[in-house]
Design a protein that fits this description.
binds biotinyl-5-AMP
């Protein structure tokens, strides 16, 4: 048993006591570790923000737990997606970079890296993802058994999963193709997929998810926050709900394919029936028209003025000013 495993078990023993006092002796004999080790773990947990009362002779009592995005806390809240292996839990540059490194080293399908803060959070196309405390930053290593073309729907699958998880937690969101998550007309969460292919197979996909939960210094003022809709929201609870949603929807995609998810995506899409313009990162217009769902490969379907259908596989979408005449 590693140090962190034995610490997790001490914490577990305190939680299982449900607010009553549990003796150091009982913890040490159940876990097969020394009394000194138990008290060292308790000291570490206190430093990490757990409020643990100790009374000589009787033992320890857990009074409150901090809102910390640690693997053990997330694991204990997961009801689905128990195949996930959660790692990290400390500030890092980018959980996507960490997950990619692990994927290259052979990390198994379902490995997740979580962090409470990122110092180099990334968006798509080299953009920055502001990642101060108060957010949930997570990256999943996935190893889908499909050809690269079929994997092109994954950004939408993950977006539906994030939306389902948030919905379950009490936050209703809109999706903006391909994988932005909005609430009340502002961006609440972003998703960044990075894929490695080998010939006709997908070696791994890293799906990074960043969610704004509670405002803090460094939060982008124009963004949406879960806390705006659910005052007092916990980062931990939101992270666990989102991982639950993502794994459920991912499993549905594995068994039913994208057709089992497409209606949900379109049903939540803030672009459906709207007149939009799609541009490259450099700002050049790729297409414009009225949105009519997505096709079986997850491409945005646009109908232009002459009724011609166009399929768009990448780009940034903006809603056309309805007052603009053209
Ligand atoms: C995204 O990019 O929306 C994908 C963001 C993915 C972040 C996760 S966090 C875990 C994992 N590790 C990483 O390093 N990344 C992933 P994009 O569509 O390019 O949107 C980026 C744009 O959103 C920026 O140019 C800003 O305008 C805006 N933005 C930046 N930070 C934001 C935030 N915290 N909330 C809302 N909008 C933000």
């Amino acid at each position: 048993m590693t140090m962190s495993e034995s610490r997790d078990r001490v914490l577990d023993a305190l939680k299982r006591a449900g607010g009553s006092t549990v003796s150091g002796e009982a913890i040490s004999s159940t876990l097969g570790i020394s009394r000194v080790a138990v008290s060292k773990h308790v000291a570490w947990l206190r430093k990490a923000g757990y409020d643990i009362e100790s009374s000589r002779g009787t033992g320890y009592r857990l009074l409150s737990a901090p809102d910390l995005l640690t693997p053990a806390e997330i694991r204990s809240r997961l009801t689905t997606g128990t195949w996930l292996e959660i790692e990290g839990g400390v500030p890092t540059a980018s959980t996507n970079d960490d997950a990619k490194r692990r994927a290259r080293q052979g990390a198994r399908h379902g490995t997740v890296v979580v962090a409470p803060i990122q110092t180099g959070g990334r968006g798509r196309l080299g953009r920055v993802w502001a990642s101060p405390s108060g957010g949930a930053y997570m990256s999943l290593v996935l190893r889908p058994h499909v050809a690269p073309l079929e994997a092109s729907v994954l950004p939408l699958v993950i977006a539906v999963g994030v939306a389902e998880g948030l919905h379950e937690a009490g936050v209703v969101v809109d999706l903006k193709w391909p994988n932005d998550v909005w609430s009340g007309g502002r961006k609440l969460a972003g998703i960044l997929l990075e894929t490695a292919t080998e010939g006709e197979t997908v070696e791994w996909v890293v799906a990074g998810i960043g969610i704004n939960v509670v405002r803090s210094d460094g939060s982008p003022p124009e963004a949406a926050f879960v806390d705006d809709v659910l005052p007092g929201a916990s980062v931990l609870q939101i992270a666990a709900a989102v991982l639950g949603g993502v794994t459920r929807v991912y499993e549905r995609w594995e068994t039913q394919g994208f057709l089992g998810i497409r209606d949900q995506f379109v049903g939540r899409s803030m672009l459906e029936g709207e007149h939009v313009t799609v541009r490259t990162a450099a700002g050049d217009e790729v297409a414009s028209g009225t949105v009519d769902g997505v096709d079986e490969l997850g491409r945005l379907v646009l109908v232009d003025q002459s009724g011609e259908r166009r399929l768009v596989s990448s780009g940034d979408v903006t809603l056309r000013d309805p007052r603009a005449s053209d």
